[in-house]
Amino acid sequence: MENRLRWGAKVISADGKNLGRLTRVVFHPSTNEVTHIVVEKGVFNRRAKLVPIGSVQFAASDEIRLKIEASQINELQDFEETYFLPGETLEGEVKPLYWLRPVGDYPEIYPLPPLAVSYNLSEGSQAIESGVQILSIEEHEIGRLRSVLLDELGHITHFIAEIKVGGKTYLKLIPIDWVSQIEESFLKVSASETMLEKLPDKYD
């Protein structure tokens, strides 16, 4: 059975509870092995959890079913850790935050210590986000990453991308062997735009 990790897919616990949406896929570039998925829920009280790939029962285009129950999700490691930076930091490294405190008839704005965010990733791992740019060998943007296909052992075999051809958008299967570089904001392939256009279409 095809295991497909699609960003935005609903993640359901073993007892049928909605745990959130898939927002990132964590893998080792050297082996193409997926180790975790990031499940995120909420807006103002946002929570992002690292779910081991071994906890995934099955993954389809619109739903990912887990082996664990909803009560166990809080026991998993947080993907992000946010903390205040002590002392002064270099300008441009972090964004200042402010809070509004009413004083008499006029509210006053007070600065908060700068915030920083770190990701709980093991050494050598990368987390791919939704909508990463696809670059051809000519370094032209030709589409956006949409989902990932895995084999039975949890290794990436293909990326599914939205490729623009002649003003139209198609879903194309890009073999992992064609990928020469993966960064946080883009994925580069060792193929020309013409070769990418000839790849087989992938239908939802």
Automatic annotation (TrEMBL):
<dbReference type="Pfam" id="PF05239">
    <property type="entry name" value="PRC"/>
</dbReference>
<feature type="domain" description="PRC-barrel">
    <location>
        <begin position="8"/>
        <end position="70"/>
    </location>
</feature>
<protein>
    <submittedName>
        <fullName>Photosystem reaction center subunit H</fullName>
    </submittedName>
</protein>
<dbReference type="InterPro" id="IPR027275">
    <property type="entry name" value="PRC-brl_dom"/>
</dbReference>
<dbReference type="InterPro" id="IPR011033">
    <property type="entry name" value="PRC_barrel-like_sf"/>
</dbReference>
